[in-house]
Amino acid sequence: MKKYFAIVAMVAACTFGMTPSVMAQDEAAPAAAEQVDSAAVDSAAVDSVEAPAVEEAVAPVEEEQGLHKTLKTKFIEGNAGFMSLVAIALVLGLAFCIERVIYLTLAQVNTRKFLETLRSKVEANKLDEAIDYCAGTRGPVAQVSKKAIQCLASDDQNDIATIERTINTEAEVQGAYLEENCSWITLFIAMAPSLGFLGTVIGMVQAFDDIERAGDISPTVVAGGMKVALITTIFGIIVALVLQVFYNYILSRIEALNSNMEETAMGLLDMCVKSPKCKK
C-alpha cells in the first residue's frame, strides 16, 4: 500500500512538473510567431516604401524613352505620306524663319549713337568719311543714310527736295528687303493645317471604306480611319502655331527697324538742311 501511494505521488509530481514547462513552451510559441509576423510586416512595409522610390527613379527614364517612341508611333499611324508633307512644311518654314531672324538681328544697330557720329562728321564737312562710315555699318539705317550723304556730297543732287526723295525711295527699298521671304513663311503657315485637313478627309474616306467592306458600323471598324484623321489634323495645327509665333516675332522686328528708318530720315533731313553743302 505504501508502495502504491509512493508511485502515485511520483506520477503526480512528474505530471505537475511537466505541465508548467509545456505551458511555458505554449506561451513562447505564440510570442515567436508574433515576432516572425511583425518582422514580416516590417519587411513588407520597407519593401512598400522602397518600391515607389525605385518606380519614381525609373519612371523619368521610361517617360523620356516613351515620348520619342510615342511621337514616332503617332507619326506612322497618322499616314506617313501626309505626315511627311507636314514635317517638310515645318522644316522649310523654320528655315525661312531662322534666316529672317538672323538677318533682322544683324540689321539692328544703335540708331541714336549712329546718328550722333554721323552728325559730327557732317557738321565738320567730312562727307567722305561720313559715306565710308555708313558703308562700314550694316543695316537699312546705314544704307538710307549713305544714299542721303551721297546726294549731299554731289554737285547736282544736293538740293533738299532731291535728298528727301532719295531718302524715301531708299527706305522703301530697304523695307522690301526686310520683308523678303516672309511670304514663304505665310505660305507654310497656311499649308500645314491644310495638309492636316486633307489627311482628315482621307481618313474619313478610309473609315467609310472600312465600313462598306465590313458591312458594319462598329467602333472597331471606324477607329483606324478616325485615328489617321485626328492625328494629321493635330500635327498640322501644331506646325501652323509654331510658325505663326516665329512670324509674329519677325513682324515685330521689321516694325522696329521701320521705326528706326523713320527716325533716321528725320535726322538726316535736319543734318542736310544745316549743312552748307545743301541747296535750300
Describe the structure.
This protein has helices at residues 2-77, 80-107, 111-123, 127-135, 140-153, 160-178, 182-214, 219-274. It folds into two domains: 1-73; 83-274, no CATH class. The chain starts with a helix and ends in a 6-residue tail after the last helix. By secondary structure, it is an all-alpha fold. α2 (80-107) packs parallel to α8 and α5 runs antiparallel to α6. Residues 1-64 have low confidence and may be disordered.
Provide key terms for this protein.
280 residues, mainly alpha, 8 helices
Furnish the topology, listing elements before pairings.
Layout: H1 2-77, H2 80-107, H3 111-123, H4 127-135, H5 140-153, H6 160-178, H7 182-214, H8 219-274
Helix pairs in contact: 2-7, 2-8, 3-8, 4-5, 5-6, 5-8, 6-8, 7-8
Quick take:
By secondary structure, this protein is mostly helical. The protein is 89% helix and 0% strand. The longest helix is centred in the first third of the chain and has 76 residues, at 2-77.
- What is the helical fraction, as a range of percent? over 70%
Number of domains: 2
Give the SSE string. Answer: HHHHHHHH
Please tell me what the overall shape is.
Answer: rod-shaped
Strand content: under 5%
- Our measurement of the CA-to-CA distance between the termini, rounded to an integer number of angstroms, reads 161 Å
DSSP strand count:
0
Integer average pLDDT: 75
The total of helices stands at 8
Class by alpha and beta content: mainly alpha
Reported for the largest beta sheet, the result is: none
Rg for CA atoms? 43 Å
Unreliable spans are 1-64
